[in-house]
Amino acid sequence: MRLLLGNILFSPRLGELTAIPRGALLLRDDGVLEDVLPAAPEGADAETVDYGDALILPSFVDMHLHAPQYPMLGMGMDLPLIDWLNTYTFKTEARFADEAFARRTYRRLAEELITGGTTRVCMFSSLHTDATLILMEELERAGVTGYVGKVNMDRNSGGDLNETTEESKRETLRWLDACDRFHFVKPILTPRFTPSCTDELMAWLGKLAEQRGLYVQSHLSENRGEIAWVKELHPDCAQYWETYAKYGLWKDHTVMAHCVWSDERERAAMREHGVTVAHCADSNINICSGVAPVRTLLDEGVSVTLGSDIAGGAMLAMSRVVTTSIRVSKLRCMKTDGRDGFLTVDEAFYLGTTAGHRWFGADGGFAKGKPLHAIVVDESGFPEPVRELTLRERFERCIYLMDKSAIRAVWSEGRRVAGA
Amino acid sequence: MRLLLGNILFSPRLGELTAIPRGALLLRDDGVLEDVLPAAPEGADAETVDYGDALILPSFVDMHLHAPQYPMLGMGMDLPLIDWLNTYTFKTEARFADEAFARRTYRRLAEELITGGTTRVCMFSSLHTDATLILMEELERAGVTGYVGKVNMDRNSGGDLNETTEESKRETLRWLDACDRFHFVKPILTPRFTPSCTDELMAWLGKLAEQRGLYVQSHLSENRGEIAWVKELHPDCAQYWETYAKYGLWKDHTVMAHCVWSDERERAAMREHGVTVAHCADSNINICSGVAPVRTLLDEGVSVTLGSDIAGGAMLAMSRVVTTSIRVSKLRCMKTDGRDGFLTVDEAFYLGTTAGHRWFGADGGFAKGKPLHAIVVDESGFPEPVRELTLRERFERCIYLMDKSAIRAVWSEGRRVAGA
Q1: Full-prediction pTM beyond 0.80?
Q2: Are A171 and A150 in contact (CB under 8 A)?
């Protein structure tokens, strides 16, 4: 057994925060969390890792990001969506035909995810099978766990980034066959979005999802031009989500990024089918997509998580994505004259941690009976406060101020993967 | 003479960007910028500092921040304004009666400003004369230049943070007398805002400003409750700005923070009297004040600069304040269906650098004939791009991604004050 000691903070449910001063996390030898204790048990036969006065929080979960867009982080932010896609996105993704480039880039991405405290992801790769396998290898090597998808896109794609329907099917199968070797990184089916996939491919992917019990991720209702385009492509579907539903891709655990413009009917379809929203606040602002109705989604019982959506988003660090989500929710709050209450720091933290871990089957903040995913935050780089702060205050300050230099250690899947 | 070599980028005017690959900044021995050259002159008799392929940009100017709120950075962000003031702000500022605490805190603040690339400030202290002098000492020691104000506040202030009208006058004079010893940090008169100052004190400050040729800074039209309060206090004034104008505080170089709700008439009064706006995007969102009409202010010819406004703002690094200004302007752009065009990265960079330096009398980006204020940015921590980037692209990426670890050197008032 192993004991981790420190100030333990987590959000078990939306809007709730549990703070345990100098508490203990009891781990089994295989890294599974046995118990969360109010203090170190006396005389316990366990190796102790004492983090002193530092804060121990659940790690972050990034539920939507494009790994092959990492090289273009912070670029082209002033361009309209279509120019941004053509000038940067498609050309950048096309570069991942080069395996050596993919190896270097994905190694760096995986390291930056871990040092930033993100240990679980639901991630888009590019259409390249081999680069996708390299990405999965590098994530697993660094300690990032979760789901990665080789992207399917057999129409309306740009320049060098093309695959035929046949290639898309064949490469998807080759990729899936090669995924058995991974322990903590699993495949997820990833039609880029409806305009990128022919009906034939969508139908094939839906059947494959059913046959092999695979999860699905894609994009939904990000901006109004896209919605109109989908309507043109699928005049038989009343709404965007139905273009996924009719092929069996709209189901439990399906992750849909954005949902900025989803109306009541589309939101009800999410709730009824167990579809999870990956809210990407920074990306939605940068590309001027709109401001998602997060409060409404939560009030209606839809499952909401957060995504960095690099490189529409320009920040990989999920702590910054969390505070950006708060800021954007405050703008929506002001715009609706207070009707859509803003996300409190506890709520946004819940969305960036517990809500994501729950999608992976580990609920409640620090999930007993599941491998530990945690970060340890050291506040010594922050300004000296004028009085002793409560744990609650220290927590808020950490969420707003932490960067990788404040993250002293990272635990993923029960193992320490960064720091000491 | 001295030569600084590198890729030189600056914004001479709003919306313009000048990029000089491997150019040279020629400095006199006293640190004054003699010339900006397209290349290193051959056989020049000058000490050379070669920054290689790094980017050399003008340093940032933070035109509105509260030094004694640094200890509460990132705290109380979910509270309504009045609770935030009473729970955190006034109590935090009151702590600066303790000179040892002030010394420790202001030393750290000054260092963090410099390592973040901010070399010029227009800053609020607290009402404490001695702590204000300590602040000015620590700024000057670290290489931060600019204006600092002992705050005047003889009514409606909280708990331990009080001064009588007589104390306020006496301490202001004692403070001004003690400021002669500073070279690069100068005093600026700082009535906290209209509700905090009696008419007698405002009138006295206005006369003092005239007699001694002092600049003035304060707050204006931050939120609607405040505006209504000012109207109650000064029923004779049609608008908020007139409560400053009637006492001689509304004049050339006066800096007014926020101006979120300033209407056409108030904006015209700014333009006509040479009043400068310090736009504080992050603070305005965090405290739910509103979204300032920056595009309109610029179109109408009002002078606009940027402020971090810590600790209403939760980020001291001006690079992040610049990108936050872009993000907030995009939300306003969407809200106005595109009428208020968003700030491009070039424009926001101009506001965070050149517009501020211009207030200090140094115009044009890198101002010839003025001491150099510059930062050197090293991109080695950024992701590897898929192709060779243009200087323009590298510039944008730096603005979005830089943190202090990317800032290789900082020059202030012609001297290197950080890095190598």
Answers
A1: yes
A2: yes
Residues near A266 by beta carbon (within 8 Å), at least 6 away in sequence: A220, A221, A239, A240, A241, A259
Do B274 and B193 belong to one domain? yes
Domain enclosing residue A100, as ranges:
60-352
Which residues from A are below 8 Å from B335, CB to CB?
335
Residues A239 and A159 in one domain: yes
CA atoms within 13 A on the CB side of A210: 11
pLDDT for residue A45 is more than 90: no
Indicate yes or no: CB of A326 within 8 angstroms of CB of B386: no
Q: Which of A140, A253, A127, A241 is nearest to A186 (CA)?
A: A140
Low-confidence ranges of chain B (pLDDT < 50): none
The Cα B30–Cα A4 span in angstroms is: 56
User: What's residue A384's pLDDT?
Assistant: 97
Looking at CA atoms only, how far is residue B379 from chain A in angstroms? 12
What CATH number is given to the structural domain containing B334? 3.20.20.140
Q: ipTM higher than 0.90? A: yes
Q: Same domain, yes or no, for B10 and B129?
A: no
Distance between B78 CA and the closest CA of chain A, angstroms: 6
Cross-chain residue pair A345–B385, CB shorter than 8 Å: no
Residues of A in contact with B342 (CB under 8 A): 78, 288
Closest by alpha carbon to A344, among A326, A320, A364? A326
Contact across the interface for A401 and B344, Cβ inside 8 Å? no
